[in-house]
Amino acid sequence: QVQLVESGGGLVQNGGSLRLSCAASGRSFTGHTMGWFRQAPGKEREFVASIDWSGGSTDYEDSVKGRFTISRDSDKNMVFLQMNNLKPEDTAVYYCNRLPRRADYWGQGTQVTVSS
């Protein structure tokens, strides 16, 4: 059974930083592109960032470019999201998943709240 467990969220002030972690168990994601997604209250879940299997290619949603950095440690089966210069509009529950997404891989997510 695959489990993706997100952690590292919290409450920060406008301009602050957080580092999110995603720990995978149940199978190896070494050969898969992994991604971060977020869902704000009343909105649909949206793509935030992705990283390919080698870690050499990344992609970002426009609003987070230059502020967020995705990385992975394939040996530990983990994916990370460094978030700098956070803004109130980044407030959401953050999830990780492989790409293409699988509905049965969604975890509980980790709440990020940015106060103004």
User: Which series of helices and strands comes N to C?
Assistant: EEEEEEEEEE
- Biggest beta-sheet profile: 6 strands, mixed
Strand order of the largest sheet: 2-10-9-4-5-6
| Shape by Cα distribution | globular
How large a portion of the residues is in β-strands, by DSSP E? Answer: over 45%
Q: Helix fraction?
A: under 10%
* Oligomer type: single chain
What's the overall average pLDDT, rounded?
Answer: 95
Task: Describe this structure as you would to a colleague.
With 116 residues, this protein is mainly beta. It is 0% helix and 51% strand. It is built from no helices and ten strands. It has strands spanning 3-7, 10-13, 18-25, 33-39, 46-51, 58-60, 68-73, 78-83, 92-99, 110-115. It is globular. The mean pLDDT is 95.
Show the helix and strand layout.
Layout: E1 3-7, E2 10-13, E3 18-25, E4 33-39, E5 46-51, E6 58-60, E7 68-73, E8 78-83, E9 92-99, E10 110-115
Parallel strand pairs: 2-10
Antiparallel strand pairs: 1-3, 3-8, 4-5, 4-9, 5-6, 7-8, 9-10
Short description:
The protein contains no helices and ten strands. With 116 residues, the protein is mainly beta.
